[in-house]
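Workshop exercise sheet. Pairs work together: one partner reads the sequence aloud, the other fills in the structure field after running the prediction. Swap roles for the next sheet.
Pair: D.N. / O.F.
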Amino acid sequence: MRLGIHDFINSQPLLKPLMKRAAEVGLEISNDTPAQLADQLSAGQLDMAMIPAIEYLKHADRFRMVPNISIASRKKVGTVLLLSKVPLDAVQSLAVDNRSRTSIALLRILYATVFPAELEFSQHEPNPEKMLDHHDAALIIGDQALGISKKGAAIYDLSEEWFNQTGKTFVHAVIAVRDGVKVDGSITQTLLDAKHEGLQNLDAIAQAQASETGHPVFLLRDYLKHKICYDLGEKEMQGLVHFQSLCHEFGMVAKKFPLRFV
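Structure field:
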């Protein structure tokens, strides 16, 4: 079973315990960006993958989700940020992080009536300094966004903006499985066991990630414990269904399908 998962800080509570269990249940784990993992899953290069929520919604007729696992947030998350040097209704050029697609869809929905109608989004490598050197605003996600500050730029947390507008949890990523791939119960249980172990060891994971990334341990501890949710329960599914409806309304999802699980 070929599983793809990104290796951002927010995936570590799943990734680290999974790596220990992979061999015994026949999991072959590979890492890439969320966007690349979605493409690899669609192409049949992976059997299952942690992919942007928008990519699951686009292909909900041929993807199923692993239950009870997601990367979600409620209110501020700190790793999906819009930085702007000018008022949002004056933005003429916008650079977007090329690693995620859910955040771009969310950005379009949240500020549809604020951004100038002719505004184009330019894909860029995730480098906030370079992005803002050449553009009025930049969307940055993941580890590069955590704790960021930029003199002369306002910072908008898209998860917080989503909650302010909808009152709902936002689901950033899910583990999706291609139709035709049989998922043994032991695989699903291994994923759930890994999540449980990771959530029991967030302090140690934060400490290890602080050593690896240079981020302050208190920042990482707060992020993993209080900003990220790893469940896919009722609140998360309500948020995901609402996001699906808005993506359909904005023409980013061709057809709405019921959420499907392995």
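Discussion prompt: The chain has two domains: 2-72+170-249, 80-166. What would you look at next?
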